[in-house]
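Sample entry (138 residues):
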Amino acid sequence: MRAFLVLTLFCAAPALAAVEVSAATAHEQETVKPVFQHAIPNIPGKKLVAVVVNYPPGAKSASHRHAKSAFIYAHVLTGAIRSAVGNEPAKVYQVGESFYEEPGAHHRVSENASATEPASLLAVFIVDAEDQPLTTPD
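Predicted structure, serialized as tokens:
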């Protein structure tokens, strides 16, 4: 019985270490969850796509660009988001505040402004129906 317990603990240690590494990695990156997509009936060839971006404390997105046709409206749902688009200086947006990105804009900074509290935003894309991918890291 003692040998079984020692073997079980020995085998479980790498799995626990892997969980800790995964948790640390997740802490540093955002998650993106699609929540809505539909063709815009009165604008042929266009669709509306909405995603919720969740940032754990201290998390950030890589600098990126969106699909060339994409006009984006972003609304902060929780916490505070630091954002810098194009040549504009970084600004912190609080719950209820919003910003936008013009088609072809360079999103240089997109991150949780807090190292201790989570943050999230709703991003709404108006984009050409066939334009993919929606986001491309630099």
